[in-house]
Amino acid sequence: VGGHPKPQTAPLKPQSIKKIIAVGSGKGGVGKSTVSSNLAVALARAGKKVGLLDADIYGPSQPRMMGTTKRAASPDGKIIEPLVAHGVTMMSIGLMLDEAKAVVWRGPMLMGALQQMMGQVNWGELDVLVIDLPPGTGDIQLTLGQRGAVDGAIVVSTPQDVALLDARKALDMFMTMKTPILGLIENMSVFVCPSCGHEAHIFGHGGVAAEATALGVPLLASLPIDLETRLAGDAGTPIAVGQGAMADAYAALAQHLIE
Ligand code: ADP
C-alpha cells in the first residue's frame, strides 16, 4: 500500500446497500469467518436487513458455517440469486465453486469475481452487508478500500504475538486507504475449564487490548475459546442464533455497531 489511492472507476458498492462492514484479519484461523457469520446473524436478530458476503476466496467457509451448501442459481445467467440462512441474505464464492477445490486465481480474475458478487447478486435493500475478507492485505482488500466500498472495518486477532503482528499490518492497510476503522476484536482470548472454572490463556493475554490502546482504536469485544462456538460453526448454525453468553456477546456487539 503506498501513496494516496483514489477511487478508480464506478463505485463498487451497490446503491441498495446502506452500509458495508468488512471483517479482516492479519492471518488465517483466528476466527474471522466465525465472527462474520455471528455478527451477521446478531444484526439480523436486532431487526436489520443483513447480507453476508464471503469474499474469502482462498478458504470460503460461510456456506458451511451458515449451513447453506446449495449452489447459487442464476436463472437468467446475469443476476445471481443469493441464499437466505438464519435471516441473513448470503453469497459466497464458495457457492459457485466446488468446496474441495483450491482456488489459485490471479488479480484480474479475483476482481471479476468480487465485482460480480457485489454488483450481480440480487441483494435487495440491505441495512448492512458484512464482508468476510480473505486474511492478510491482498488484492480484494485493496480494491474494496481504494474504491471506497467499505464504511467500516473490523480486524479480528487472537492475543498471540504473531497474529497481533499481522493484525497491525491489516489495520495499517485500512488506515492508509482511509477506511474508517470500527475496532479490533480479540478472539480466543481465554479458555475457561468447564469442570473446574480454571482460566487458561492459551494464546496469551492482554495483547489485543494493549494494541487497541496503542493504535487508538476501540476494542469491540473479547471473545473466549468456546467449544460451543466451534461446534455451532461446524454444524451450520452459528452460536448467535441461540441463547447464552456467546449469543449475548454477539448481540451486544451488533447493538454497539448499530448505535
Ligand atoms: P478464519 O476465518 O480467521 O480463518 P475461522 O472463523 O474459520 O477463522 O475459525 C477457525 C476455527 O476456529 C474454526 O474451526 C472455528 O470454529 C474455530 N473458532 C473460531 N472462533 C472460536 C472461538 N471463539 N472458540 C472456539 N473455536 C473458535
TrEMBL record:
Top-level taxon in the UniProt lineage: Bacteria
Q: Does the keyword Electron transport apply?
A: no
Q: Which UniProt keywords apply?
A: ATP-binding, Hydrolase, Iron, Iron-sulfur, Metal-binding, Nucleotide-binding
- Give GO BP annotations, semicolon-separated: iron-sulfur cluster assembly
Question: GO: which molecular function terms?
Answer: 4 iron, 4 sulfur cluster binding; ATP binding; ATP hydrolysis activity; ATP-dependent FeS chaperone activity; metal ion binding
Q: Where does ATP bind?
A: G26, K27, G28, G29, V30, G31, K32, S33
Self-association state and partner proteins as the record states: Homodimer.
Q: What does this protein do?
A: Binds and transfers iron-sulfur (Fe-S) clusters to target apoproteins. Can hydrolyze ATP.
Q: Which family does it belong to?
A: In the N-terminal section; belongs to the MIP18 family.
Q: Per its record, how is this protein called by name?
A: Iron-sulfur cluster carrier protein
